[in-house]
Amino acid sequence: MWIPTEHEKYGVVLASFRGTVQHGLSLEIGDTVQILEKCEGWYRGFVLKNPNAKGIFPLSYIHLKNANIKNKGQFETVIPTEDSVITEMTSTLRDWGTMWKQLYVKNEGDLFHRLWHVMNEILDLRRQVLVGHLTHDRMKDVKQHITARLDWGNEQLCLDLVPRKEFSMVDPDEISVTELYKLMEHRHRKKDTPLPASTHHLFVQMKSLMSSNLGEELEVYFSIYDSKENRPISERFFVRLNKNGLPKSPEKTERQCTLFVDLGSSDLRKDVYITVHIIRIGRMGAGEKKNVSNVQYRRPFGCAVISIADLLTGDSKDDHILKVYTCNTESEWYQIHENIIKKVNARYNLTGSNTGLAVSLQLLHGDIEQIRREYMVLFTRGVAITKKLGFSDIIMPGEMRNDLYVTLEKGEFEKGGKSVARNVEITVFLLDCDGQVLKNYVSAGSGEPAGDEFHSFVLYHNNSPRWAEQIKLPIPVDRFRGSHVRFEFRHCSTKEKGEKKLFGFSFVPLMQEDGRTLPDGTHELIVHKCEENANLQESARYLKLPFSKGNLPGNNQAVKTTKESFWITSFLCSSKLTQNGDMLDLLKWRAHPDRITDSLSKLKEIDGSEIVKFLQDTLDTLFGILDENSQRYGLKVFDSLVHIINLLQDSKFQHFKPVMDTYIESHFAGALSYRDLIKVLKWYVDRIIEAEHQEHIQQVLKATEYIFKYIIQSRRLFSLATGGQNEEEFRCCVHELFMSIRFFLSQESKVASPITQTQAVFLKTFPAVYCELLKIFNVREVANFVRETLGSLPVIAHADCPLEAVKLQCIAKTVESQLYTNPDSRCILLPVVLHHLQMHLQEQKDLVMCARILSSMFSLIRKDGTTEVSISEEVDLIVESLLGVLLRTILEITNRPQPAGTALRLQFQDVTGEFVACLLALLRQMTDKHYQQLLESFSNKDDLRDFLLQIFTVFRILIRPEMFPKDWTVMRLVTNNVIITTVLYLSDALRKNFLNDHFDYKVWDSYFYLSVIFINQPCLQLETFSPSKKKKVLEKYGDMRVMMGCEIFSMWQNLGEHKLNFIPAMIGPFLEVTLVPQPDLRNVMIPIFHDMMDWEQRRSGSFKQVEAKLIDKLDSLMSEGKGDETYRELFNSIIPLFGPYPSLLKKIERETWRESGISLIATVTRLMERLLDYRDCMKVGEVDGKKIGCTVSLLNFYKTELNKEEMYIRYIHKLYDLHLKAQNYTEAAYTLLLYDELLEWSDRPLREFLNYPMQTEWQRKEYLHLTIIQNFDRGKCWENGIILCRELADQYETYYDYRNLSKMRMMEASLYDKIMDQQRLEPEFFRVGFYGKKFPFFLRNKEFVCRGHDYERLEAFQQRMLNEFPHAIAMQHVNQPDETIFQAEAQYLQIYAVGPIPESQDVLQRDGVPDNIKSFYKVNHIWRFRYDRPFHKGTKDKENEFKSLWVERTTLTLVQSLPGISRWFEVEKRELIEMSPLENAIEVIENKNLQLRTLITQCQARQMQNINPLTMCLNGVIDAAVNGGLARYQEAFFVKDYIINHPEDGEKIGRLRELMFEQAHILEYGLAVHEKFVPQDMRPLHKKLVDQFHLMKSSLGIQDFPAYVRASPVHFTNGSPRICRNSVPNAISPDGARVIARRSPLSYPAVNRYSSSSLSSQASNEVSNITGQSESSDEVFNMQPSPSTSSLSSTHSASPNVTSSAPSSARVCFSGSPLLSDKHKHSRENACLSPRDRPCSAVYPNPQDPTQRMITHQIGENSLPRSDPNLSTPEKGSPARNMRPLSPVPTPRSPQKTSIQSFTPSPTECQSSGLVSNSPVLSGSYSSGISSLSRCSVSETSGTEAQPSEHMLTTSTSSGSDELTRRENKTPPPYSVYERTNSRRPVPLPHSLSVPVSSDPPALPPKPHQLRSGKLESEGRRASEQGPRPRPLPRKVSQL
């Protein structure tokens, strides 16, 4: 039985559990679980990261942990009792774990590895904490490391900032909002700006000296030198180098490295240098021979300098190579460093070009303890400390130093009987009072241990040497008295012996008889002469002698006049000894009582560092004197005390304050002093007002704090001693003192008067007195003192008065003091504090300080049960005084423009945050009672209205994303919690006061607006949070969006008829709310939506406003959410809004207005689908078809369904930009044309819009025209550009703007030149089907035709599509998919090539039109595309397959012609017809005849560079016919059985026969032409062809041509066979209309007899289908003909029809066989394979099949069967280029030759449907063609047809009107200027076709400009025939 657990509540999973048992819960190792019940070794519970999934798991898998339980019972929560840092660490590492893996996926390797390293560190530290063996200090350090790493990781991963107090996370409910804000800000600032360090240290490591002329040991001295003051500021650091220039003791790092400590910030200047002096130890002259002398001397070598400022800029750890210089004359050595710094080049030069000193230099920042912690290695391995000369900037108490620095400056010596000057060396000894040398107290510098003596360096032959060598004498204080320093002078001989001879000495005692030390400064010492054997050991003898010329008695002139002198400079740095006699006099005041007044007066002149050395002694002295005679010395002692107290305010000595505090607490004994101190202090205060000079009084008031400390301590000592006597007298004195203070504070005076400054001085120190007063007086008494004192201040002074700021600082310190924290005193002080604050806030002054005070006040207010009443009263007071002014302040500072300076901006931001935190803290403390009192306090509704508007506005400001930094989620959640609580209170006031008669739109609107933006805040979108974060937020606050949504609903219901005021204004905002993916919120909001529609219907009877607002809002949401992933989710959620919920749709269906409602929802839903797609496609990336396609979809929707002109134009420009980016210039031009067409040539002014300036409509249209022309030019669509050039030229002509007219005509001419001169590539077209539910709405289950890029073939296109849709599956067949594919949750792509069906047949078939022009019409303005599939119907005749070979032809009609505003358009209509074998045969022969004519014409016109194409074509037809090609057709269709069984085909059989005869006639002529041009080496082939042709004629039974052929011989222009364009054989079509009648739409669609160029293109189609590449005609020609019969070759060769007439390599199976016979269904799977990969089959013939007998080397092995017997093998796949077209028209029977040509307008005329009419895509290469199934184009009306009858014209017109109707109902309007009047339809027959047949030759076509009027008339007439066509878009937005 399952029993609820009592203590076993929380545990960690020890091993993974799969949960395979019934009700089992799967667990992963490390999961934390909450346990609910247990039963026989099993627990039931859930994993904390997924609390919804509950189940059972084994007890043994869980390690139990202690935990506290909150809310015991069903909704209990478990909180682990472990250390909060551990808990946080665990949850954070879990969150990081998932994100860490994502970093790897996103390829952010650097952060991935760094985070991994940090996670491991945290885990190691966690183990240390869990073990629990750490000391308290170590635990603190570990936690600090942990939290630092957690914060670093959170920052790197953009997670939230965690507020902490002493390493633990803070619960926002446990502290006030102001405290929380301070914590957040502190952590944010700490993260942002570390404080600059005030102390710096320089690390120096000597590496080596590099020089070629070494060989002697060296001494290197480093020091820091101030060039401004020309003095060193540090001791010297001394390193010994060996003869190789390397450190002499490499194992002792402390002898190579040093730290120059305690450099102040002022020392890091450009003029502070590191100087390096190098001394060599060896012979006197550097070049002397070794055997001259063995004595070693110290001699100058070189000097180097580097500025400290250089270390601040460079990489701090770089090694530096310093150049070493030497002086030109040795006497300048003492100042060589100065010369180098000042760059006095004449006095020094380089020691050698390759000499350099290698040192490592690094600046470290922070105090020395911090450096010890951070650079522990330095100190553990050893580093010498080099001190500053003198104390550092800050002197610490307890710092012990007693260093005497002596600098050997210079000497003046006599020659001493020598002919040359002496070589002087000084030896320095330190001796004690007994004359004994003190050992190890003479130091040349840090780094080397101190020695017993020091030898100076020697300057060669110099009687006035200058050394400037510094030595340090670290003498203990106790040995100072009586010690002296002796300097011995020796002459160093350079002779062989090299001896040093003593010739004199000097000495100096270190302490004078009165106890003063040797004063700092330069001393001129007397040089006492002596000999080498002089006994200097007995110092007593010479100590009696004078030592310095400065202190000689006046009568000792003999010594004064001596020429020999020696100068030293001494400097004492001692914390115990003094050189000041006044100081000693004061301390020994009892010895000289008469000097007391003098000593007290001189105290102020003594240096501060001397006073703090003897601080305690000095204070004892002062109070001793006061006790001795207070009457006489009281004032003097008081002034001296004030001086000492104020001395400690100096930053240099501030660390001595604790010393004074300790003195007062422990050593001070002046029990009677308080009387004198109070008396003197009061005397000074009373004199303030009358005194002229306030400076001294201000000094007294500055010291108030410590004076009170002495007064209070003195009184306590007196009370202890006397048992509390004179208490009343003391209190009385203090009260009187405060009365005097209040009186002087209450004085109002001018702004800068001295009294004001004195008041300010007092207020600064006053708060420090409170604590002292509390030691004697009780809390209330002190509070009253303070209240009265602060209350006596003038309330508001002048604007610039310094007192104001100081007054606030005083109040701030009061609020932060111990006094204010006590509730008893707080209630006394609060009113006066609030009074001052209110005044300042109203004046908007000193806001930073006001914010600080408020923050401190609110930090003290806690919801503490014991003081609930007092807190409530405090809150009352604060609300009454400050709430209104606080709101105004926040509004003021947030609306104020931000200052430019960074510091000011930071301050601005800080103060805003502070005030916001204060407001939130106040609102959080307010209860029902407070709100009730607040609302009752408003005297009228206007005040209440203003208050509500104000607070709603402030709340909106608080919700702004920029209010807090991005990672302050904790603060934002607290803010939102306070806002929603307050809004719930205030909504009642809104309902009670502003409904019905008192309705106020502004307040309600503000309320709703606030609610909407509250719900839409990013920080409340829980769906975007991690599961753990979401759980925490829900547990703490719930889903605040739902709460606010319920409140909106409740308020909306209360509005009643006032709802109409918010329609349609609130539709957009409420829609935003509905888009939030929260089901509960949506359920709450949907009824409001329905309600709005209902009220709108009642009011106006329609939803126009609702619809308009919805659409605008949806689009604006789209543009707002750019790049934001969350918006994808938001938009997805609108579908449910209108879908499966208790939804709007269901509600609407119950209404009377259901139809219009459902229509509205359908429109919005469709728009939503498109917007969703747009949102998805517009993600960052390259422009692809998806982006363009979905923009087109949206653009069409705005135009056709919504009629939103402005949105339509916006999306036109978005699409235009996309095309430009993708370099689709033609499409870009068509796109911009859409906007151009909306404009007229008028002077109407247009407003500024998008990137267009304010201009007239004419100017904008002109600009658009020019831009479009430019894009058509770049896209090589020059014909379209010409039309626009003409239109623009007409406008210029109208306005007589001949300058621009000229330019335009030149531009037009240049476009004509480009048509003729430049080559254009013809693109291929591909049909793409998108099947499956995973595609975007605008593609889903639709088929499109796409215009390929230049050079793009099927394989490349297919790969591009698969790249665009990486999840799509390519379908391996071309059959129409079934419903399962349509409904699949996947993406399927079906791609194959299709061929264009050009509309402009008359242009293509006109003779003499260059290919450059025709190429445009082949691939432009194409509406229809097709592909063919051969199949066998009925039984298949193995002997002759053509009897049963049918062709299934599919024609695809698009919604728009290509090219257009997109590279692809949707297929609107799919037509399927079947062509009988006979019709197929007729079409094949017709096409072959056309091809032959073309080649013959081209050959005659010398357009062909070689004759090979004609040769191959002739060979293909003649050889195939000989081998049985045409014979197969005869066998199939001319036999009696076929004629009997198909009586209806009589005419067609006749037609086939005519074509055969015609072909024979053309061949005969072609052979004649061939003979004329054939080269000599091909003569044998020509002869063979002639022979075979005769065989062919006889096989056809032709002895001579029939009469109708003879009567109307084939007429060739220029001697080539040509048939008149409109002539028709009379025997077949006597009335000229039976051709059309013969070819019914079902069985034989109107054959499009292509010009030769079409045939040539067909040929290339086949070649590239078969071979996958273009082969040269020579290659194909050189192949041997197949021995197979013509039947076989024709059976298995591909026809252009079958391969769907696509131009090139696309003609493989994609275009070839959409439906195959069952026998060969397996070949469907190969449809997507490349031609080389496909297997053989019926479609791809099998060489082993005896019926096929296909030779394996045959090129056409992959081609499709087609009924053309006239083909032999070699001809297949042959390319032909640059064919000149021939008109393919059958000969008429009548002898009369009809030569009326069809009228063909110029390519640039508007006759052929203008810019958007269509033409085929052709490739310009050819194949044999007869057997090719890749080309048989269909066109309803063809220029090659015979004269159509009126009946046919009617049919054509009706079909056009059908299309018009269809287009108006289903498709977007056309996108061309020319389509406004012309519906898309077959090209109308020109007028010339309807005139009676005449024998007159045709006139030349009229010039384009002459046709313009005729064109307009004919267009008008045509338009009237078709019925009126509406304008695409009514003009709505007049200013666009």
Q: In summary, what is this structure?
A:
The longest helix is centred in the middle third of the chain and has 28 residues. Strands 1, 2, 3, 4, 5 and 6 form a six-stranded antiparallel β-sheet that branches. Strands 34-35-40-39-38-37 form a six-stranded antiparallel β-barrel. The chain has a five-stranded mixed β-sheet with strand order 18-21-11-15-22, with no helix packed on it. It has 1936 residues and is α+β, with helices and mostly antiparallel strands.
The proportion of residues forming helix, as a percent range, comes to 40-55%
Describe the global form: extended
Distance between the termini: 78 Å
Which consecutive residue ranges, at least 5 long each, have pLDDT under 50? 900-908, 1122-1142, 1603-1935
Q: Profile the largest sheet.
A: 6 strands, antiparallel
What report would you give on this structure?
45% of the residues lie in helices and 13% in strands. It is of the alpha+beta class. It is built from 66 helices and 40 strands. The strands form 10 sheets. Strands 1, 2, 3, 4, 5 and 6 form a 6-stranded antiparallel β-sheet that branches. The C terminus is likely disordered. The longest helix has 28 residues. Helix 4 packs antiparallel against helix 29. The radius of gyration is 54 Å and the shape is extended.
